[in-house]
Design goal:
Layout (H helix, E strand, L loop, with lengths): L12 E4 L4 E3 L8 E6 L6 H12 L1 H6 L2 E7 L3 H11 L4 E4 L4 H6 L3 E2 L3 E2 L2 E5 L5 E6 L4 H19 L2
Parallel strand pairs: 3-4, 4-5
Antiparallel strand pairs: 1-2, 1-5, 3-8, 6-7, 8-9
């Protein structure tokens, strides 16, 4: 199963880096959401991607969006990753890869967890999907471009 643009994003509940359970649908309605799946904490590529989101976090906030990262890392791994890189957003632990499967995030080369970003509007509708294992900053650029468009269209 793979979600598509225009569909309602699937609901889920996962634990964040502080051990707090977060239900995705509880966030719908208040902010746009940039949900990015990444392979693992602390690898060079994942650190580059996470820090690119960190460095643009204020712009995401200006666009009325919250950033959420998901990987199969456990709570402790996420906590250390957040602390080391001073990440201002939530990381969720999908240790069983259930949410990854729910969204249809593909594997790269058949065994590496994929890197996919979803932009989800305030109504919970998937507005954009960006899939690139190696274009780390592209995930941020694509998400910001879509959020800009959402904001321009909502102010008309």
């Amino acid at each position: 199963m793979s979600v598509k643009i225009g569909e309602k994003a699937p609901d889920f509940e996962l634990t964040n880096q502080s051990g707090i359970k977060i239900r995705f649908f509880d966030m719908i309605g208040t902010e746009n959401i940039v949900l990015f799946f990444y392979p693992m904490d602390s690898s060079p590529g994942c650190t580059a991607q996470a820090c690119a989101f960190r460095d643009s976090y204020e712009v995401f906030q200006d666009y009325g969006a919250e950033v959420i990262g998901i990987s199969s890392g456990d709570q402790k791994s996420h906590f250390n990753f957040v602390e080391k890189n001073k990440l201002p957003y939530t990381l969720l632990s999908d240790t069983g890869r259930k949410v990854r499967k729910l969204y249809g995030v593909p594997k790269t080369m058949g065994f590496i967890d994929g890197r996919v970003t979803y932009v989800i509007d305030k109504q919970g509708i998937i507005r954009h999907i960006f899939n690139s294992q190696l274009n780390f900053s592209g995930h941020v650029e694509e998400a910001l471009s879509i959020l800009k468009s959402i904001n321009e269209n909502s102010s008309l």
